[in-house]
Amino acid sequence: MAITLQVLEQRLAAIEREIVDLKAQFARSHHVVSHGARLLQDAQAQHAAATTAWQAISARLGIQGQPIGAKQFRQRLAAAGMSPDDNAFSREIIAMREE
Description:
79% of the residues lie in helices and 0% in strands. The longest helix has 57 residues, at 5-61. It is an all-alpha fold. It folds into 2 domains: 1-64; 66-99, no CATH class.
């Protein structure tokens, strides 16, 4: 079966469209990667200031000690006789909103 010039032109046009699409996708992904790297760099540069601010807030609020995980928090709630699945706090917030 012979391939006509018209078929070759159609195939070439399809390949060219595919290349244009791939270049556009690459440009978008490269922008996302460079933006992400810039955000990470900014976060690292601001880490010391954020740590200092958190320490000041903790001192002002009287927060002491190391943070505990959710599992340990739930255990402490249960030991104090509270259900960790109780949503009383959420209900109070909802009630305050409705006032």
